[in-house]
Amino acid sequence: MEVSDEKREQFFIYIALSSPNVHRLHECCCRLRGNPAVGKKVPHEMKMFGDVCGDDYYWLRDDSCSNPEILSYLKEENNHTDQAMLGVKQFEDGLFAKMRARIKEDDISVPIRRGSYYYYERTLKGKEYVLHCRRLITDDTSASAHDVMPMGPGAAEEHVILDENIKSQGHNYYSIWAFIRLLHSYLTSVTCLQICPQ
């Protein structure tokens, strides 16, 4: 059965209005209409591959996170959002706590056998980021669908290739974009994004 866009829209409006927190959300939307920070427009053209693309907000790019004008503008935006969302702060904190309580914080990914090692990722309780690890394969068995990485006292020592928790120190946000392991080698290539603490 095909549902028209109008019916779909009515359904979502009904769900939104039946939410017990709809009055708080409406209050936030009204506050957001207040006096938001307005970024200036500075014409900028980028030419690539014969195309020209205009970006009036290119001036906001600051890879060093040190431009005082940009930092001031971003603080204004954040302050406006914080003020607008005051009415749902308690609800937001409760929702976050419920979601976090359902997550197994100390967990391990399924190991992948590559070359002479098992590669996997681990998370630790109370930590925000991932550990990229490997263990040496000590037996002579060939790879199969029934591979099980040995763990415990008799297992090969775990090698932490990259601890994102250490790399993220001093930054508000840290994200690995690409993590490439060069097989049969100790070399690892990592491309990451760090957001400065301002």
Question: Could you walk me through the main structural features you see in this protein, from its secondary elements to its overall organization?
Answer:
It is a single chain. This protein is α+β, with helices and mostly antiparallel strands and 198 residues long. It has a domain at 107-195. It is 29% helix and 25% strand. It contains 5 helices and 9 strands. It has helices at residues 5-17, 22-32, 68-84, 89-101, 164-167, and strands at residues 45-48, 51-54, 107-108, 112-114, 117-123, 130-136, 158-163, 173-181, 188-195. Strands 3, 4, 5, 6 and 7 form a 5-stranded antiparallel beta sheet that branches. Strands 1-2 form a two-stranded antiparallel ribbon. Strands 8-9 form a two-stranded antiparallel sheet. Helix 2 packs antiparallel against helix 3. The chain starts with a helix and ends with a strand. This is Peptidase S9A N-terminal domain-containing protein.
Instruction: Let me know the largest β-sheet.
Output: 5 strands, antiparallel
**What integer value in Å does the Rg equal?**
25 Å
N/C terminus separation: 52 Å
Structural class: alpha+beta
InterPro entries: AB_hydrolase_fold, Pept_S9A_N, Serine_Peptidase_S9A
Domain Peptidase S9A N-terminal: 36-177
Family: Belongs to the peptidase S9A family.
Protein name: Peptidase S9A N-terminal domain-containing protein
Quick take:
With 198 residues, this protein is α+β, with helices and mostly antiparallel strands. The protein contains five helices and nine strands. A hairpin with a 2-residue loop joins β4 and β5.
